[in-house]
Design a protein that fits this description.
Distance between the termini: 28 Å
Strand content: under 5%
Oligomer: single chain
Structural class: mainly alpha
Shape: globular
Helix content: over 70%
Number of helices: 17
Order of helices and strands: HHHHHHHHHHHHHHHHH
Length: 461
């Protein structure tokens, strides 16, 4: 029950019950805005292309710029919050996202629209990188799993309703309203954030500007390489971007080992379960990201379903995640999160293998139950695994842990997209092959998750 999140018990750390409710509402509203935005905008890209007089390939950059800037800034905002505070950075993220939304709604050309989408991406990076960390500050440790489960539920709602909400908006209004709707929500969230989010003591130290540059280059180079691969760019450009990303990654790791105030403190990975849970997150999101891209092709191109039928067939996954995430989060407060997440991954793996196997039958109805299993399993994996990540580090490093969580999640999603694009570009490639590849990635994630059970539980301050 969500009401349990706001009940006070003697000795609780975090915020008092009433303020806890308002602070949680801020994080929910802001996270929902950032998650909804991509799905809503994707469905509106054809309308934007027609209204602005640009090609479909040019309109795709409206989505790409947002992802690119957001990914590049995730670790930067997480580290900056240690210097300036969660409250200031999160509120600044809401302000940037709202201003970017207003500017995008008023844009008359593609260039100005892309510029405001970049501002939106900056705001989304601040919101998404600090969300889990704020739950750690808002709620007592005994309720951390339930709070993380709430976050999983919010993300599931955003994933499930983004395209549908975008279609509804376009059915009654023009494309600028896709962005304009964020403005009143952002104003409310900004006012609540300044009023309800906790003030905290700030850490002394300087912001790691070289580390931020290397981090942004690493993430942006990787994401751009994935995007270009998916749109049929020449192999030389894709390889060049990938090499640049790897070089930036090497420089970033070297900088973090020597910087007096590193963007991502190396001591963060001294906690064995934190490191293992982060790797599992990257792999699990790789598998899920690949399936999210492959299934629409399977339903429409292979099985002949209409776009509406494909949307309905996809619905069981996020709906099951919506139901299982909060339950798993509540269980993670009393049971070993690693065991719960390993069990969830096992169910997810069964669902993935079933999707890959039954896709060869070309019977659409057979795929509903496997999709439901995937959603249930992922819900029981994600909330406990995220709780393990956020609960394995000291409170003072929670912002860094939150940034790492957001970064590996983004990395996994993009890698999954790249794997599908690569598989389908090969002479022997197919949608079914992409599903089997995603299943193999999920199997590796499950194996590492089982191995994690033998690791010592990280002690935190």
């Amino acid at each position: 029950m969500l009401s349990q999140l706001f009940k006070e018990v003697p000795g609780d750390e975090g915020l008092p019950g009433p303020q806890r409710r308002l602070a949680a509402l801020v994080v929910v509203l802001a996270t929902l805005m950032a998650v909804l935005d991509l799905g809503i905008v994707n469905i509106a890209l054809p309308s934007m292309a027609g209204a602005l007089g640009v090609s479909a390939s040019q309109a795709v950059w409206v989505a790409t710029v947002y992802q690119l800037v957001c990914a590049a800034a995730l670790l930067c905002f997480a580290a900056l919050s240690r210097v300036l505070g969660h409250r200031r950075i999160f509120a600044a993220g809401i302000l940037l996202f709202s201003l970017g939304s207003l500017g995008a709604a008023l844009s008359l050309g593609l260039e100005s629209l892309l510029a405001f989408r970049a501002i939106q991406g900056l705001g989304a990076a601040a919101i998404l990188s600090l969300g889990p960390s704020l739950y750690r500050v808002i709620f007592p440790r005994r309720l951390l799993g339930r709070a993380i489960g709430l976050n999983a539920m919010v993300v599931a709602v955003g994933l499930a309703s983004g395209p549908s909400l975008g279609g509804l908006v376009l059915a009654i209004a023009s494309w600028p309203w896709v962005f304009a709707l964020n403005v009143p929500t952002g104003i409310v969230a900004l006012w609540l954030a300044w009023r309800a989010l906790p003030r905290e003591s700030l850490c002394r130290g300087h912001f790691d500007w070289p580390g931020a540059l290397f981090s942004a280059s690493m993430m942006a180079g990787f994401l751009l390489a994935v995007e270009r691969l998916g749109h049929g760019e020449s192999l030389g450009i894709v390889i060049g971007l990938s090499v640049a990303s790897l070089v930036a990654a090497g420089l970033f790791i070297r900088r973090q080992a020597r910087a007096p105030s590193p963007l991502v403190p190396p001591s963060l990975f001294a906690a064995p379960r934190f490191t293992s849970a982060s790797v599992v997150t990257a792999l699990a999101f790789t598998g899920q990201g690949a399936v999210f891209v492959a299934l629409p092709f399977l339903y429409q191109s292979v099985m002949g379903a209409t776009p509406l039928q494909a949307a309905l067939l996809f619905t069981p996954w996020p709906l099951a995640l919506l139901l299982s995430g909060p339950v798993a989060g509540r269980l993670a407060d009393g049971l070993d999160p690693a065991r719960l997440s390993a069990g969830g991954l096992a169910l997810f793996l069964v669902g993935m293998a079933s999707l890959a196997w039954l896709s060869m039958t070309k019977q659409v109805a057979y795929l509903v139950v496997p999709s439901l299993l995937c959603g249930l399993g992922y819900g029981f994996f994600q909330a406990p695994n995220n709780r393990e990540i956020m609960g394995s580090v000291p409170l003072a490093m929670s912002a860094n842990a939150s940034g790492v969580l957001a970064a590996v999640r983004t990395f996994g999603q993009c890698l999954g997209t790249a794997l599908v694009a690569l598989m389908m570009a090969l002479p022997f490639g197919s949608v079914q092959g992409a599903l089997w590849l995603a299943t193999a990635v999920a199997l590796v994630a499950w194996g590492i998750s089982v191995r994690r059970l033998s690791l010592p539980v990280d002690s935190v301050a």
